[in-house]
Structure prediction request, 445 residues.
Amino acid sequence: MSVPVEVTINGRAYSGEVEPRQLLVHFIRENAGLTGTKVGCDTSQCGTCTVQLDGAIAKSCTVLTVQASGSSVTTIEGLSNGVDLHPLQEAFWNKHGLQCGFCTPGMIMASAELLKNNPSPSREEIRHALEGNICRCTGYQNIVSAVEEAAGAMGGS
Amino acid sequence: MFPSQFTYHRAASVAEAVQLLGSNEGAKLLAGGHSLLPMMKLRVASPPTLVDIGHIADLKGVSADGDGVRIGALTTHAEIAGSALVQERAPVLAEAASRVGDPAVRNRGTIGGNVSHADPQSDLPTVLTALGATINATGPGGDRSIAAADFFTGLLENALEDNEVLTSVSVPGVASGAGTAYVKFSHPASRYSVVGAAAVVSLSGGTCSSATVVVGGVESTPTRASSVEAALAGSATGGDALAAAASAVSGDFGGDPVGDVFASNEYRQAMAAVYVRRALEAAVARAG
Prediction:
């Protein structure tokens, strides 16, 4: 029943034989061993599994690996070069934009898409863009502040 | 959560998809997967075969079609919300698409998958019914078009045959000067519309010359609020007129009711009057 797939993740090609029902998030975590991307609600609501799929964010618990075969994925591990923190990572650290940290990779991936499309978002726009990412610690104030700081650091205001 | 096992085919063309549907009993089409995959993970649906049409380029994009637009089945909510053509010719559809789910869902979810799923709590069926849109499909016997008002036949049921592929949605342009609006009561987690209301209102000398009002989330298919429309025709739009017209919506619910642990049908009906009023107020404010 397995079928061959090849997905480029953070610039590196990963190939494998997977069941068609395998979800992309499991390919990322188990086949590629990149566990920054989390499985949270598993119902496309909480956003912990958010990755970039061909340049636009997607909830990887609601994509089959076979659908993504031939595509390019960026996860939290690929957002920066692995040495220096991305300005969003730096800002989440500075502003304490996390409590338990489980939602943080998804929050940062969704925030990165926001700042790509809107370099200087208002707090209201940040909240709207993070509508699909849930922080069960309810640490939203500092998350919004972190995105604001990152926007400034990246040249927006 | 994993779906049950299935066989996967990636179709390279609509013709191949039609052929694969015909040769695999119980096969379902997969586009963005944002309606079907959640159903499969919950084992509400367990199709033995999936035919992935998500890579057929012909099914993507928005184009001008007479005074309206034609939207390919694979066009995502984000693309519809961001389309200058849709914003100009059917702004209420762009407005609704911008409120579907959240940004990541809008990047993957498609108009074709959304309307095929025929979820009463979905946003686009309500708006497409209000706009008088047409659903275009291709099957073994060729192409056919189905009016949105006839397309949604029941809870998660539509008028397509098992071996037909929804290829595009044709949306007529909104009449010049008409004001339109879509407002919704979003479920706090899923962002589905507990109640959604779409309004298209034309004014003439301070009174309403015509109105189309459709409500989603209360019955298994979009509800045409003809009592509200009748109350509005020739009516003034100031004071309590819009609230009074909106309250007539209670007379329009007689079909198959929808309700769940989050919102009973009684509550949805009560909220429908509120959201219809808000849709009418916004549409009147935008009418020229």
